[in-house]
# Entry
Amino acid sequence: MKTSLTSNRALIAFLGVVLVFLLGTLIIPGFGSVFSVRAMLILASLLAIAALGQTLVMILGGIDLSIPFVIGFANVVFASLYGSGTPALVALLMVIVVAACIGAISGGLSAALSIHPLIVTLGVGTLVQAGVQMWTRGLPTGSAPPFVNEFVSLGGTIGPLPFPWLIPFTLMLTLGCFFVLQRTVYGRRLYALGSNLKAAELALVRPVSMWMTTFALSAVFAAFAGILLLGFTGSSSATVGTPYLFQTVSAVVIGGTALIGGRGGFPGTVAGAIVLVELRTLLIGLGLSEALVQSALGLLILALVAAYGRDQHIRNLI
Amino acid sequence: MSDENIVLRYDNLVLSAGRKPLSGVIRAGEIAGVAGLEGHGQEQFLLALAGLGRSRDGSVTVEGGTAGSARYKDHYEAARNGVVYLPRDRRATGIFPVLSVLDNFAIPSMPRFSFAGILDRKRLKQELSSYTDFLSIRYPSADASISALSGGNQQKVLLARLLALKPRVMLLNDPTRGVDLNTRLKFYEAFRKLAAENGIALVILSSEIEEILQLCHTVSIFRDFECSSVLDRTSMTMDRVMAAMFGQEGGHP
Amino acid sequence: MSTAPKTSSKPAFWARNETRLAAILFVVLIVINAVLNPVRFSPGNWLTVLGLAAPLLLATLATTLPFLAGRGSIDVSVGPLMGLINVIIIKVLMGDAGISSPWVIIPAALLLGIASGVINGFLAAVLRIQPIVATLATYLIYSGLALSILPSPSGSVPSWLADFAGPLSFIPVSLIIVAWLLFKRLPLYDLLMAVGSDDRTAYTAGVNVPAVRFLSYVFGGLIAGMAALALTALIGSGDPNIGPGYTLIAVAAAALGGVSLAGGIGGLAAAFIGAADIFLLQNMLTSFNVSTFVLQAAYGIVLVLAVCLNSEKLKARFQIWMESR
# Structure
């Protein structure tokens, strides 16, 4: 029963969240403090939002390498538009629309011409980043509106609650995404197309429009993450998204979504994002250098995926 | 039969470069068999009718639909006009192994059971159960994985999938392939009912002549990407079908 | 293994569909570069140019090998591996151990490359971790290790190694060409192409598919080891930051050259031409004195355009369109 297997994978990821948390509180003083938990949740939320689109794309059997570039694009362009007097909501809308177009182009080209999305998104992403750099001449300006800062602030509170709005927002997003994937035509067809392209085409699913929609959504959420990151870091940078290239893929995979398509879901990705952030915090708390943290994360990703994310043997594919 | 019964008209279908073009009609309630030795164009014929072919000059037209007669250029338009296709290879092009019975049943007809993109699962389940008895599909629950079903039951789900599209013409590519005898007889019964009671036209490509003899009103036999002969109920015998398949009998009888 | 399907003999690379576009681009770029920069591209400087291009040429071929094996096989760790071998040569072998003999350093670099190939191959083909995830993890591990071994650029290379980027620059590349030509004569090459085009059929025909995939990573690793030597020769020092950048460029170059990411299509010629295109493009734009952003934009455009024009589906659609007129 493969459907239960995927939910099991997400469950394992959530179990991982709990285990790593317990481990952290045991060996690092202050790991479980309100401040530290809040910081981890904020970082994990930002990663999860950036990885939402990657999850959808991977359910489809693709991969989106343009996420970090779109994050950088949104980060810089939103700051610059807002800085030059555009109302925040208008700026937001403009950035989201352009991002959606960028994603739709990548998805459309990949599906219509059957080119591997890895190459297309890499090329389109590079182009986007170059465009942004040329536009700003490498010197991005502007800043985030205060409400965005507040939304993601490390010191943010909602009344008596000790966390910023980002946390409940991410929670709502998770529930919303779960609903869309389970209970809408788009969601079910996404799994169908990801699990069997030919069958889906014959079952009246339109691959090109599905790919365009999905990659557009991916870019929209990447852009959204880029704007939130602007609020988090305070100043804009075209390369702010760089770490998100591999982190989104890792979060999705740890969360139990298989790259071969047709399986997985967003709750798992959220768990994957939390695990990644927890592990990072844990390793830094242990006194490892940034470089060794990276290596150790690589090892841990391998261990996690080897434990429950392995592909089928070729003999089972015949 | 009168012209009023025509549901599908095909003109000038060329199945392979340089071959004689095919034209003809399919009538409501008709069960038309399609046969031939493997790879002699019968599959291309079925695909062309389904809107999946690549014939340049040919055309397929649905007659007497809600919008009068309609030509279609792809299988999406075909399905919208009530012409649906059951693929041959269930595993490669039929089922979605990771999805539930309900999803497998509903993927193409989902828009009809949704509001603003949100699925009405209750209506979907009702729709599925309305075919469950008719086709006697056996499954643990609508949310069980399709992979848990036997091949015959998977095939029945695929058939229900087509029926949920409210078809006027069903193009079935070897529908009883890899299905046990009992289930096969169930299928025949269902096909006859669909044709007789619902007036659906069925075009059945079969690799078993026995099946065609039992089921079909007419059979078109393909040889070298041309329709070499058409036999009706009275002239349809194992020997004549075989002879036509091997090209020992040319032209129409 | 004897019943494996043989790949049919292919026409020469310039006549092959998938590489033709890259080959045309190559000729155009060579001409433009020679006109723009006659001194640099004069015959006397060819070896220097080859030395400049060698790391990318070899990195692209190293990336190409797993691609050939199909079903998502990919090695994104090639770049960081080159960086890791670079700092190991400079810091560990030459700095700490004081070894500078080519008879130690060259085999060491190649062995490190092979070791990485064994690790990646084991993870991807034997453990069956999705290749992009497996090699992504080794990407992180290698780049982290490189930074820990040598946190900032330093060191220098012995003259024999520096010559590998100058008068002797033909050595690393020609060694790999020879190795490739030998490899093509092995039954393994046919098995690899068979697995890449259709692994199920190959498996049914008795091919040990995981073993073939595994070996594609190992051979790729060996070539990456040579790429690391060429890189070390070129930069003349140890630099932990320069390697990872090669990964995406090499993937792009392979795709540009017509290597199919789905497996079974491509080889040395495709990889080298794709890499040469990117190298020449880089050179051309640099001599126009444009900003790195324009350079980046040009990469993006060339990459997207090239893979689109190379698409079989586009060609098929074009053909239908032509026929219908």
In short: The first strand of chain B starts at residue 6 and ends at 13. Chain B is about 35% helix and 25% strand.
